[in-house]
Write a structure and sequence with these properties.
Elements (H helix, E strand, L loop, with lengths): L21 E4 L13 H11 L5 H16 L3 E5 L2 H14 L3 H6 L9 E5 L10 H7 L3 E5 L6 H9 L4 E7 L11 H10 L4 E4 L7 H5 L5 E5 L10 E5 L1 H9 L12 H15 L3 H19 L5 E7 L7 E7 L4 H13 L3 E4 L9 E3 L6 H15 L2
Parallel strand pairs: 1-11, 3-4, 3-5, 5-6, 6-7
Antiparallel strand pairs: 2-8, 7-8, 9-10, 10-12
Length: 378
């Protein structure tokens, strides 16, 4: 819901510090702090910091809450979604065997290759294949250049050296959009487990679970707006193998007490939201913004649905008829101002700035419109 963040919300320790003032229209972007937590989530996380708590009990409680909310068999909290990917791969390589867990990333010559569709080799601040390597896995890229990419996947998964399949659900995926459910069926027919990286896809959890994947990894601190945390949901035995990594490489990726408690609060908050009403609000907000931008001479905008099915649109803004140089210059001007306005830059070469308005207040949206108008004034 739109909300204004008052100056008093700045952490006291940061007061008076020369930090960049931001309006984040770039979405749940990690280098910009990802998201804003609600007061209730912040208060619960802060309260956790003042108590000693048994982490295993918290994990068990969170696992039950995740299962009840998502409909998955089981769940576990990880430090973040990237950690969830690495620990899921580790679970594929070791199961619950304590000796194998302790030996990672050395797999002792056992099958350790993880298949990954080439177009799913995304970079979200670091290459996703590094998440595989951190667990001791070796990524194997399945080409999608031929006429039958799923056939190529099937041939790869038949190899005895393949330990599992990693799929990605993200707007960053560079492929024609293969059917994730079909890929999961192919992997299971070959006896291989599957994990889906759905980091920023918390509004699409039912669809991701419906693919039949053994594990689905989600970020807690994106649209769910928890403290920094990720979670893994899916088959009970596989989630248990993820939890078992806490005695191995997962020790370096552990979820803190405040993160788990904050995630529990965020889940409770999400369960009180009407998804249809929330989606309608985001659509109206973006439509109103697009209408205002289109009243500015020299700029045009349109609302575009999320390419992987998240329930809100984004605003695509172009200078003139989409001149890349002019649009890039406007993006730079927005960034250089005070407050600095950040947008998605992945389509600048096509002359498009992409703005996500989900977390922004009316005041912030007003500022963006004003700054766009100023940027094109003669």
């Amino acid at each position: 819901m739109p909300h204004d963040i008052p100056p008093a919300a700045v952490p006291p320790v940061l007061a008076g510090q020369p930090l960049t003032r931001l309006i984040n229209a770039a979405g749940t972007f990690t280098p910009l702090g990802v998201s804003r937590s609600s007061n209730a989530v912040g208060e619960n996380a802060a309260a956790a910091l003042r108590h000693f708590l048994v982490i295993d009990e918290l994990q068990d409680m969170a696992g039950a809450a995740l299962a009840a909310w998502t409909g998955a068999d089981a769940g576990a909290v990880t430090h973040c979604a990237a950690a969830g990917i690495t620990l899921s791969v580790a679970a594929f390589l070791t199961g619950n065997d304590p000796d194998r867990i302790a030996a990672l990333p050395d797999t002792g010559g056992r099958p350790n290759r993880i298949a990954l569709l080439a177009g799913h080799a995304v970079n979200y601040g670091h290459p996703i294949e590094q998440d595989i390597r951190l667990a001791g896995g070796e990524p194997v890229f399945v080409t999608q250049d031929g006429a039958d990419p799923l056939g190529e996947l099937e041939a790869t998964l038949r190899s005895d050296t393949i330990a599992g399949l990693l799929l990605v659900s993200s707007r960053l995926v560079r492929s024609p959009g293969e059917d994730l459910s079909a890929a999961v069926r192919i992997a299971h027919a070959a006896g291989k487990p599957v994990v889906i990286d759905g980091a920023a896809q918390d509004w699409r959890i039912p669809a991701l679970l419906d693919t039949g994947a053994d594990l689905v990894v989600i970020s807690g601190h994106k649209y769910l707006a928890s403290p920094t945390a990720g979670f893994v949901i899916g088959a009970r035995a596989m989630v248990a193998a993820v939890r078992a990594q806490e005695k191995g490489i997962g020790r370096a990726m552990k979820a803190s007490k405040e993160a788990i408690v904050g995630l529990l609060a965020a889940i409770a908050e999400r369960r009180s939201v009407d998804p249809a009403a929330w989606s309608d609000e985001q659509t109206r907000k973006t439509a109103a913004f697009v209408q205002r931008v289109n009243s500015i001479a020299g700029i045009r905008a349109e609302a575009i649905d999320d390419p992987v099915g998240m329930p809100f649109p984004r605003a695509h803004v172009m200078v003139g008829n989409g001149d890349p140089a002019a649009t890039r210059a406007m993006c730079a001007a927005l960034k250089a101002g005070d407050p600095s306005i950040r947008v998605m830059e992945h389509q600048l070469d096509q002359g498009v700035m992409v703005l996500e308005l989900v977390p922004l207040s009316r005041t912030e949206i007003d500022t963006i419109v004003e700054r766009l108008a100023e940027a094109v004034m003669p």
